[in-house]
Amino acid sequence: MSAIKDLKENRTKKLAFCISIALMAVSLLVFFTMNRYVPFMMDDEWYATKLYNEEPVRGLSDIVDAQIWHYNNWGGRSITHGLLQLILIAGERTADVLNTLALMLLSAVTVFAAGIRLRDKNILFFIPAAAGLICGLNANLKMSMCWQAGAANYLYITVFIMAFLSMYLACIGDENAFSKFADKATGNVLLSILMLPLGLMAGWSNENMGPAVFVASIIAMAILIKNKKTPKLWMILGSFASCIGSVLVILAPGNFVRNAEITENSYGVLWRVFLRGYAESKAFLEYLFPTITVLVFILILAKTIPEIRLSVQDKLLLFTALLSFGAMALSPHYPDRATFGTMVLLISVIISVASKIIKKRGELFVPLCIPFILIWLKGMYVMGEFICISWGWIR
Fold it and tell me: What H or E segment, with its residue span, contains residue 279?
């Protein structure tokens, strides 16, 4: 009987994997189509120029000049906005393709941060699931993933952030192929070379996620020391680079110039505290609420299975999400798209816990697919509605 049951479960999983791959293909097609109908607009039109005048950006030298001016007069996100200007030069068709590829990369690196590796037979389910969650739980899919300025600030840069963080996460738990490679002399040298630019990009990203992942990297090394292990050179260099990046993005002279123009600064202290509290509450109870609801559901389900415990990686991801959320209390603005990085961190925990549930209780695989598919449908609805409006089918 057990052999028959196992055979049925394997067949069910194979069917689910085939369906999930089909859903991934549909997701990418619909996402690409939506991008085709979201033009360069608003900030895109300004960043397509040298910023300090209306001359169009034509090459790298123009981008460097523009970003020097931007750093001193408007804000410190030189990495994201430099990347944005490069994509704007490439044109809308290239941007649409790059945005779609970025969604694929972000889905994969989110799954990697969750501790799922290529050898894991469930990876063909979880990568499409991650894409569905990113689209379906997004507080503002259009402005964080399709509007090019938003895509550069959130979609693209979160790929680098999650890639940076996932390397630390991979080395603080049980030994695995990556941690063994990282312990070798060759791996240590190669990763040291990689982590300098990657850490700089992760830190020099945006004002809440950059410092959050820097702190996470410090905590990861502290965990290693607690476990009587020595942090590797690449970990130290990566953390140092992310610290430098975080300082550069926060202390940019342009931030102070821009903040001087904010109306809130003319209010009293108590009123400003109230407004910041309102912004944090709105982010928690509106923008991030769907993601938090799914996370709570998964955690409650996992609690019913005695063998499952949150790993140290899960706890660090949750703490990093909390840091990135709390850091926005220091900002006078907390737009819905700014919750993107925090959402991805929480999605990584959702996937991590879901994978543990499936490994321990294979019979829950199909029931778990249902909420993932429903969230995927929500993302498809948002994109499909926009496409239908663009086609004139909805007036």
Answer: helix 269-282
